[in-house]
C-alpha cells in the first residue's frame, strides 16, 4: 500500500487515510459518512430493499456507497453503474414514447386503451368517493390514451387520511397505492398491479377530473410498437 508522510510529525499515512483527510478538508465528515453507511446497510440487512447506491459530493471529492445486490432473486452485486427504476420520472419517458407513436400514426390519443390494457375494460364507477364498494354506476365512456397521459382515467391518489373512505382499504390491501411510497420488496409486478386495479371501481368518470397516480404502466407504447419499446416500466 502506498504511503506518504503527512502532518507535523511526518508520520506515514495510508492512501485511504489520505483520502479521508482530504474529504474532511473538503467538508465531508468521516464520522457522518460512516453513520450513513450504517443506516443504509440496515435497509439491506432487513431486506427492505435488495441493494442501493448512494453518492455524496462536494467540490471535486465524491464518496460513493454500493451495497447489496440488484434484486432479491438476483445475487449480482450492486455496482456504481447499475440501472435503477426511477419511479415518477418514468411517467415522462412513457409519455414521450407514446407521443412518438402518435407522430408515427401508430397510436391515437383518443383510442381506447382496452386493446392494450384489457384489465381496464368494462369499468364501473363509484357513485361518489364516499360510496360503499357496491354502490356504483357504469362508466360513461371508455378510458382513452389521452386520459392516461393527462391523469384523467378516473383513478388516482386519494388525498385524505387513511380510513376516510371505504375504497381506501382495498387500495392498500391490493397494493395499488396507499398512504406512503411502497418498498420495492412489497410492490406487485406490473401484471398483478393491473389485475388488482381492474378489480376495483373507478373513483370518477373517465375524463371528468385530474387525479395524481402513483403508478402508470408502459404496456401501451410497448404493445403498440410491437415490442420496439420493450420496457417494463412502473411509474
Would you mind describing this structure in some detail?
By secondary structure, the protein is an alpha+beta fold. The chain has two domains: 3-77, no CATH class; 89-224, no CATH class. It is 29% helix and 15% strand. It contains seven helices and seven strands. The chain starts with a strand and ends in an 11-residue tail after the last helix. The model is unreliable at 1-8 and 226-235 (pLDDT under 50).
Task: Please outline the helices and strands.
Elements: E1 3-5, E2 12-14, H1 15-25, H2 30-45, E3 51-58, E4 61-71, E5 74-77, H3 89-103, E6 124-126, E7 136-138, H4 145-149, H5 167-173, H6 190-198, H7 219-224
Antiparallel strand pairs: 1-2, 3-4, 4-5, 6-7
Brief digest:
The protein has 7 helices and 7 strands, in the order E-E-H-H-E-E-E-H-E-E-H-H-H-H.
Shape: elongated
- H-E string: EEHHEEEHEEHHHH
Give the uncertain stretches in residue-range form: 1-8, 226-235
With strands numbered from the N-terminus, the spatial order across the biggest sheet is: 3-4-5
Counted by DSSP, the helix tally is 7
Radius of gyration: 24 Å
Sketch the major β-sheet: 3 strands, antiparallel
DSSP, total strands? 7
Number of domains: 2
Q: Please give the share of residues in helix.
A: 25-40%
Give the end-to-end Cα distance, rounded to a whole number of Å: 46 Å
Class inferred from helices and paired strands: alpha+beta
Strand percentage lies at 5-15%
Mean pLDDT: 81
Oligomer: single chain
Amino acid at each position: 500500500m502506498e504511503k506518504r508522510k503527512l502532518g507535523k510529525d511526518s508520520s506515514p499515512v495510508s492512501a485511504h487515510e489520505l483520502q479521508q483527510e482530504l474529504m474532511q478538508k473538503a467538508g465531508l465528515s468521516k464520522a457522518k459518512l460512516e453513520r450513513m453507511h450504517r443506516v443504509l446497510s440496515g435497509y439491506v440487512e432487513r431486506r427492505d430493499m435488495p441493494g442501493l447506491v448512494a453518492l455524496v459530493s462536494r467540490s471535486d471529492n465524491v464518496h460513493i456507497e454500493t451495497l447489496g445486490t440488484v434484486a432479491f432473486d438476483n445475487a449480482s452485486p450492486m455496482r456504481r453503474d447499475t440501472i435503477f427504476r426511477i419511479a415518477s420520472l418514468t411517467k415522462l419517458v412513457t409519455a414521450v414514447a407514446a407521443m412518438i407513436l402518435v407522430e408515427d400514426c401508430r397510436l391515437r390519443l383518443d383510442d381506447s386503451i382496452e386493446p392494450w390494457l384489457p384489465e381496464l375494460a368494462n369499468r364501473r364507477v363509484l357513485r361518489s368517493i364516499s360510496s360503499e364498494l357496491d354502490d356504483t354506476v357504469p362508466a360513461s365512456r371508455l378510458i382513452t390514451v389521452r386520459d392516461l397521459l393527462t391523469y384523467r382515467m378516473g383513478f388516482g391518489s386519494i388525498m385524505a387520511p387513511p380510513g376516510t373512505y371505504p375504497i381506501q382499504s382495498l387500495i392498500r390491501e391490493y397494493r395499488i397505492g396507499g398512504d406512503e411510497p411502497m418498498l420495492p420488496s412489497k410492490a406487485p409486478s406490473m401484471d398483478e398491479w393491473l389485475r388488482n386495479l381492474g378489480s376495483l371501481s373507478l373513483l370518477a368518470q373517465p375524463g371528468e377530473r385530474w387525479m395524481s397516480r402513483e403508478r402508470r404502466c408502459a404496456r401501451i407504447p410497448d404493445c403498440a410498437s410491437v415490442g420496439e419499446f420493450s420496457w417494463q416500466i412502473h411509474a
